[in-house]
User: What shape does this take?
Amino acid sequence: MTRRLILRVIGILVAVFFLAVAVSVTQYVRAHPRDPLQQNFASWARENKMGAIVDQLEAWLHNDPPAVAPADSLALAITPDTPEQTSTTVTTTPGQSETTTSAPEVIKPLQIRPTAAISSCPIDNTAATVVTSTTTSTTTTSTTTTVPVLETSTTTTSTTIPLKPEDLSSQLLPALPGEGKWQPVMRVRTKPIVYATSIRPLWCFGSVVATMATFDPTRVRTAMFNGTEMPGGKGWKNGSKIRGTAVRSLIASFNGGFRFEHEPGGYVTEGKTVRKLRKGYATLAISQDGISTVGIWGDTITDDGSWATLRQNLPPLVHNGKSVYANYPKVDWGNDFGNKVYNFRSAICLRTDGLMMFVAVGKVNIGMLADTLLVLGCKTGMELDINGQWPYFAVYSDFGKATRWGEIIDNRMGDPNRHLNGSTKDFFALFDPETLAAGAVK
Assistant: This one.
């Protein structure tokens, strides 16, 4: 065989390979038209055993820490109520009309007000920083001085689950409109069932913004749904999308955990053990009657026969109101490369007041995520999915009707109807137990 013929054969084989890859990628993207292109490429690569390449690329893309300068807007996609603009009315002499002028906005120095001791933002207990900013269309200057801390708080555990969570103290003053103020974003029979808000949780990284949603786990029925890829397989009652009579009773839905190649832990649902549970791992557990909680397998959650679903996603970030992620130095928190990957992350926690809370925050590393959960009042918290538009929480309009529409709570999230159209990954959904038909979900 001549050299020219060998090169020709190699060229043909390479061309066939790339053509096959192009066809495969195109088919995958067309099957998931509502997901971002980059996210589709990553998912396709992971499905084809190229996860290590994706992990390294993500590390290169997300290795810049968040900006210190504070964000000037929040991420809550459902617009909060804002105070009316202050105005001044000037009364004129008879025969002249009254005029109303808006009072000029007072630019106040930005102050920090830490409410919890966190490792991401170490601070002297007797001092805080004031940042004074002057901004024009072309320049920005800042100076810093030291002033006393304005407020500290202590964590208490409630035995009665409140109807509404207490508003959160802003870590930065002045607070942005609606910052930390819980507002109802989903009602059932006129009663608020899901509350949401947004906040800048880390005073030393003011660009980081978190959006949260809370719900009383005793007032909803929680169920886990199984994606086409994670866990995959057939025969699921709760498949890749919410359908049938369950749609009428749907309240909200949110994303699940990591893909299995990241070794997140156990996965048990619908009487099947897809992956064996690991002792000491954080676990989102759902009882036989649909009440959810977050705990530690083998500690606060045990195999007592009361659990219908158990989804683990690595060890806990927060336990008993303390950051504990550093106790697991060998754990891969999503290929964090030594806490040096900063991206959009999600988590779920049981709060000290008994409410369940979903959190989406970015861009942060694993330590910042744990600190965010502390600031937000979590008792036990676990990481869920990360990157792109995988962090996701939606509520649904037209309760009680057969056709529903999703509304995401954070403007960084994706397709609001993802869990109605079909998901490649597992997810959780909340239903109204009073109207949910028997056997509609498992």
In short: The longest strand covers residues 191-199. Confidence is low (pLDDT under 50) at residues 80-93, 97-107, 126-157. Helices lie at 3-31, 37-47, 51-61, 366-375, 418-421.
